[in-house]
């Protein structure tokens, strides 16, 4: 098995470069302990071919996923010659990348490929989109700097029109460095020495890279806010303009364009409204069909940007009419309400790791399989644990009706015991706050996301009241869980405790709902489907029968806590096994549903 690449270096005239190596074959998956069925049948000519941004869609786009040249060299070395092929968008440490080598904080990962633009894009602005790259990413087009981005989880884009010239074939070069767990940046469960609850890291490009053509003025984003109490939908259209480019770019002081928004249900127009781009446009939604897990109804949106009387851009999107809030029930408990009614939110801790793709699912179909299984098991929620997924993931939770508690990926130091919050430097705080802001901004419109989880188990927890207040002000439409675990500061909308293996409920509060943010962790390794022979669980089960019995016992207790102690939500650990951790409802390769989804559902419902 290949794990590490140790580059051989020479110094010529004071410039450090990588020595030439034999090029690897075009592509084949690297040796790996286990694979998913989707990884086994992966077509390297078309990885992740789906449109990556369903909540703001255009007809024309170009997918740049596929085989790229790559090389790994010391950080201070010049651009090296290619060492082989890597399959984008799979991280370099994964088997499906075809490489499966580590990149530490002293190395840089280089990518390159050529692309040819369609002739019909000749007079368009060309935008390059990276759905995610971990962590510092520098992009050149035709040997000219395009952009530098720092962040491991958020999508970013750049207008590269000014870097293109008359040539037919253009060159794209990307350099990525990633400190993994040697830096303070958000990283989630990624570590250089995996084991226990810590997993193999992801470096470099790990989501789709793509191009799209736009006019000189275009729709950069939407902000969609449902208001079910007043029967309206608020939409803000964010306008973008080319700057500093060739003749024809709008003047800097040009008045904003007109935004026209059409709301549709089943293809029929419900409402049409317009207003100045950048301002709130309100559409009436009479007798709105509300979005909820058992009826995840989505309205369609058509948005046009009109500049100088001409349609400059148009996109399609969607909206779910739903509300998340706190309220007091007839029993006197403060509860989490969906659409002004209490429903028990129940779901698994969802790590989002894959044995062959690590952070990157082998395919959209594979990702959907996990969500479909959770629905079949009877869950109505999942907690996306210290990881942010691609934008298609949240599109699927929107359309399938799975509530999402979205964690901010953790990083930096821990708080243990009764210690105060850690102290961050201004620079480290800026890194965290930038990525936190991007997470909320880029995922804001998804109706399935109902809660932001800022900190997990004291990990990187600093200035808790201030950061919680920032999130609550940034998004007034959702609940904020400021500290999931044992470092509660009395802030946010919920009191969230973790308890393994058996479930417990915290004492009720008047101002906050009480939730059980993690419990369970019942471990059962399945022979032939484990990452290593050595594995563990919070409580090891001897066989499927004992696992199901204990699971049923736990959920009988949880149901009682919901009914009698005011518990609003519960999170079971976890969706799948991950590397040496065998606490999953499914095996890591997703080939074994350990208890059978019907049995899981019946156990949670208390039915026979």
Structure commentary:
- This protein is an alpha+beta fold.
- Among the domains are: 9-214, Sandwich (Jelly Rolls), CATH 2.60.120; 217-319, Immunoglobulin-like (Sandwich).
- It is 14% helix and 33% strand.
- The protein is built from 7 helices and 34 strands.
- The strands form 9 sheets. An 8-stranded parallel sheet has the order 29-28-27-26-25-34-31-30. A 6-stranded antiparallel sheet has the order 5-4-6-12-9-10, with no helix packed on it.
- Helix 5 links the parallel strand 28 and strand 29.
- Helix 6 packs parallel to helix 7.
- The protein starts with 8 loop residues before the first strand and ends with a helix.
- The model is unreliable at 1-22 (pLDDT under 50).
Give the helices and strands, then pairings:
Layout: E1 9-12, E2 15-18, H1 37-40, E3 62-63, E4 66-74, E5 84-88, E6 107-116, E7 125-130, E8 133-134, E9 136-141, E10 144-150, E11 156-159, E12 169-177, E13 204-205, E14 209-214, E15 217-227, E16 232-241, E17 258-265, E18 268-276, E19 280-284, E20 299-307, E21 310-319, E22 324-328, E23 334-338, E24 341-342, E25 345-350, H2 364-376, E26 381-384, H3 391-400, E27 403-407, H4 426-443, E28 449-456, H5 464-474, E29 479-484, E30 494-498, E31 513-520, E32 522-523, E33 539-540, H6 544-564, E34 567-573, H7 597-605
Parallel strand pairs: 25-26, 25-34, 26-27, 27-28, 28-29, 30-31, 31-34, 32-33
Antiparallel strand pairs: 1-2, 3-14, 4-5, 4-6, 6-12, 7-11, 7-14, 8-13, 9-10, 9-12, 15-16, 16-19, 17-18, 17-20, 20-21, 22-23, 23-24
Helix pairs in contact: 2-3, 6-7
């Amino acid at each position: 098995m290949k794990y590490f690449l140790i580059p051989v270096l020479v110094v010529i005239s004071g410039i450090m470069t990588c020595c030439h190596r034999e090029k690897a074959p075009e592509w084949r998956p690297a040796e790996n302990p286990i694979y998913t069925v989707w990884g086994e049948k992966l077509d390297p000519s078309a990885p992740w071919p789906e449109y990556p941004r369903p909540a703001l869609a255009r007809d024309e786009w170009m997918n740049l996923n596929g085989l790229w040249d790559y090389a790994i060299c010391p950080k201070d070395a010049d651009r090296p010659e290619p060492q082989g092929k890597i399959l984008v968008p799979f991280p370099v440490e994964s088997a499906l990348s075809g490489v499966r080598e580590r990149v530490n904080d002293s190395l840089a990962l280089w990518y390159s490929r050529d692309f040819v633009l369609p002739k019909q894009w000749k007079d368009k602005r060309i935008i390059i989109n990276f759905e995610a790259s971990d962590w510092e990413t520098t992009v050149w087009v035709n040997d000219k700097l395009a952009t530098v981005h720092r962040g491991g989880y958020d999508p970013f884009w750049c207008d590269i029109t000014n870097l293109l010239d008359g040539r037919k074939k253009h060159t794209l070069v990307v350099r990525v460095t990633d400190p993994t767990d040697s830096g303070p940046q958000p990283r989630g469960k990624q570590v250089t020495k995996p084991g226990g609850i810590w997993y193999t890291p992801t470096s470099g490009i790990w989501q789709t890279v793509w191009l799209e053509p736009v006019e000189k003025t275009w729709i950069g984003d939407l902000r969609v806010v449902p208001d079910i109490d007043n029967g309206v939908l608020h939409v803000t259209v964010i306008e973008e303009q080319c700057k500093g480019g060739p003749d024809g770019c709008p003047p800097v002081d040009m008045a904003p364009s007109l935004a026209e928004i059409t709301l549709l249900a089943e293809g029929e127009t419900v409402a049409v409204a317009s207003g100045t781009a950048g301002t709130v446009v309100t559409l009436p939604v009479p007798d709105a069909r509300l979005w909820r897990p058992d009826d995840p109804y989505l309205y369609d949106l058509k948005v046009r940007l009109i500049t100088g009387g001409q349609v400059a851009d148009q996109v399609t999107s969607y909206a779910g009419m739903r509300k998340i809030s706190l309220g007091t029930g007839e029993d006197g408990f403060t509860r989490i309400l969906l659409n002004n009614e209490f429903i028990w939110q129940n779901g698994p801790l969802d790590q989002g790791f894959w044995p062959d793709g690590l952070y990157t699912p082998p395919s959209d179909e594979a990702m959907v399989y996990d969500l479909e299984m959770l629905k079949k098991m009877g869950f109505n929620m999942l907690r996306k644990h210290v990881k942010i997924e691609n934008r298609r993931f949240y599109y699927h939770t929107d359309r399938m009706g799975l509530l999402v508690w979205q964690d901010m990926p953790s990083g930096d130091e821990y708080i243990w015991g009764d210690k105060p919050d850690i102290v961050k430097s201004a620079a480290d705080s800026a890194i965290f706050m930038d990525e936190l802001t991007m997470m909320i901004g880029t995922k804001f419109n998804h109706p399935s996301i109902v809660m932001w989880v800022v900190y997990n188990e004291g990990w990187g927890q600093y200035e808790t009241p201030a950061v919680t207040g920032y999130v609550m002000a940034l998004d007034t439409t959702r609940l904020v869980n400021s500290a999931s675990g044992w470092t509660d500061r009395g802030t946010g909308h919920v009191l969230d405790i973790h308890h393994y293996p058996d479930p417990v409920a915290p004492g009720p509060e008047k101002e906050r709902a009480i939730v059980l943010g993690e419990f369970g962790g019942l471990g059962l390794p399945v022979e032939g489907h484990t990452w290593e022979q050595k594995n563990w669980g919070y409580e090891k089960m001897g066989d499927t029968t004992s696992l199901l019995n204990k699971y049923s016992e736990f959920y009988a207790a949880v149901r009682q806590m919901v009914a009698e102690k005011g518990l609003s939500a519960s999170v079971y650990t976890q969706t799948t096994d991950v590397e040496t951790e065998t606490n999953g409802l499914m095996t890591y390769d997703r080939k074994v549903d350990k208890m059978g989804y019907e049995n899981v559902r019946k156990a949670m419902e208390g039915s026979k």
